[in-house]
Amino acid sequence: MLEVQSYTTRRGSNPRLETTEQVLDIPATPPGDVRNNPNGIGSILSPTVLTAVIIASWYFSNIGVLLLNKYLLSFYGYRYPIFLTMLHMLSCAAYSLAAIRWLEIVPLQHILSRRQFLKIFALSAIFCFSVVCGNTSLRYLPVSFNQAIGATTPFFTAIFAFLITCKKESAGVYLALVPVVFGIVLASNSEPLFHFFGFLICIGSTAGRALKSVVQGLLLTSEAEKLHSMNLLLYMAPMAALILLPFTLYIEGNVLAITLEKAKGDSFIVFLLIANATVAYLVNLTNFLVTKHTSALTLQVLGNAKAAVAAVVSVLIFRNPVTVMGMAGFAVTIMGVVLYSEARKR
Predict the structure, then answer these.
(1) How far apart are CA 161 and CA 205, in angstroms?
(2) What is the protein's major site of localization (predicted)?
């Protein structure tokens, strides 16, 4: 009895427990579409329609930047691929800052150490090399052939992974790379507009893209150093622009003054450059959105189809000649890429 009385007294002495009439107002659980779309987008578009719009935007931006680059560098006569790439980097830096700091599409991550900074700087240098080579190759090669060469990225990825990390794939993966290489050899031998220098720098761009993916996985391995793709772009883009600045001044001369002088006589160049730089950023943004709303596997499948779609669209727009053997070689390369992806999944 004493223990019970003592317990009762202690309970009564707590004023927060004396008011048994208190009612807690617990809000109702929101429905699934609201929870999945906190910004209210789901109230306008259904998830299926939203995903379709994002995928369509991905195709538009990826193919659009290729076509705009080709038009500027080959048809419009703006022969400054390094400066054009630097504009892409400045655009990506500005848009990334706005998207992360103001729109908050992903949480902002900071560079934590000088070691991490140097790693990102090294990635930026490889990134510069790859993008400049890719843009320069469009001066000499049609988009269709450029995309055929770009489809061989898995071949170079497997080589660099073995040379740098000693990572060995299964026999099925290596066998799948045979049609990748054979197809591009077939397409090269029958390409009517084949240009040897353009071919070499396009190979360099493809190899640089593969090297970046391998080195990125090697350098940013610790959990503390890993950055979200949008944050990585935020830091890599201004570094890349600084790397490109001395090269564009040395190789292309006073290109800024030339561009401004050209804009005085033809204001359309301003629209082309702004549109080109904006679409270049949208490529990275839609890559992120496709992965977020679908999966990394879906992005890989879309990438396999993108080369073929870009080739067809470019032939329809620019009317560059193609041969049956060239199309067959391209098809063999794409088939090899699909087989490679399936072998990697298994």
Answers:
(1) 17
(2) membrane
Contact at 8 Å (CB) between 192 and 323? yes
CA 13 vs CA 2, 19, 48: distances in Å:
16, 12, 58
Which residue type occupies 17? L
Q: Which residues of 326-344 are buried (b: 16+ CB within 10 A; e: fewer)?
A: bbebbbbbbebbbbbbebe
Residue 223, classified by CB atoms within 10 Å of its CB into exposed (0-12), middle (13-18) or buried (19+), is: exposed
d(CA 139, CA 344): 34
d(CA 317, CA 66): 12
Residue with tokens 């934590």: 112
Residue 132 pLDDT greater than 50, yes or no? yes
Listed in order, strand segments (DSSP E) in 33-132 are none
Cβ pair 187, 219 in contact under 8 A: no
Least confident of 1-5, 77-81, 185-189: 1-5
| 45 phi and psi angles, rounded to 5 deg | -120, 140
8 A C-beta contact, residue 215 and residue 163: no
Structure tokens belonging to residue 147:
């995309």
Expressed in percent and rounded to 5, the helix, strand and coil fractions of the chain are 75, 0, 25
Q: Look at residue 172 in the predicted model and tell me its pLDDT.
A: 87
Position 47 scores a pLDDT of 84
CB 61 within 8 A of CB 279: yes
Contact of 316 with 91, CB cutoff 8 Å: no
> Is this structure's pTM higher than 0.85?
no
